[in-house]
Structure of DNA/pantothenate metabolism flavoprotein C-terminal domain-containing protein:
Amino acid sequence: MSLAGTRVLVSAGPTYEDLDPVRFIGNRSSGKMGFAIAAAAARRGADAVLVAGPVHLKTPDGVRRIDVRSAAQMHATVLGALPADVYIGAAAVADFTPRNVAPAKIKKQPGHDTLTLELVRTPDILADVATHLRRPRLVVGFAAETDDVAHNARGKLDSKRVDAIAANRVGVAGSGFESDDNALTIYWRGGEIALGPAPKTTIADALMDFIEERLAS
Ligand code: CTP
Ligand code: CA
């Protein structure tokens, strides 16, 4: 129970960006990593708040869960849940959303064999938390990188003003979106540590060890 008295805010899962009443743009995040992190925080006695995109997962014991759908909703809900001691941005937030949501189902137009969607940038939740007036003491982001992992992850440390970035080592057997296993490297200004490959619950516990150490230092 070494996180007793600490509020840990976690985002998890994908976001869905609606195009019309029946269609959306989404991604393949299962939410398992973020849910495992919230569960690990709760097991250690934290007040764990989980802002979840659309996923089919059971709420972990002792976790307060708030469901959202879009990046805009996740942004408002996460910022509204501050203050917190720790923010962990494990969600796979859509970077772009349709400029307009059609009020009725988009129909094929006779004679048109292409459709162009105009997408606009979503707010960067992680960067906004990290520069917030009520900034948590520790802000941890995730990064899904396919190449140049260390360089890109360290770049995000600075560009988003966060304390640590957990980069998925994609390509490692068994790691990734829908898997129960994962392999991460945590980068912070003072070093780096490789976790896994291991079950996401084990990775989540190792991440909590890291967080407890950082909070204590
Ligand atoms: N993130 C966020 N809000 C967004 C986009 C990303 O909070 N609109 C967060 C994610 O939750 C993650 C971190 O930013 O913790 C990094 O996400 P990633 O997709 O790797 O980086 P981006 O900054 O979106 O850059 P890019 O996708 O272009 O590499
Ligand atoms: Ca992105």
About this structure: The CA atoms of residues 65 and 184 lie 25 Å apart. The helical segments are 32-43, 71-80, 125-130, 149-159, 200-216. The first strand starts at residue 7 and ends at 12.
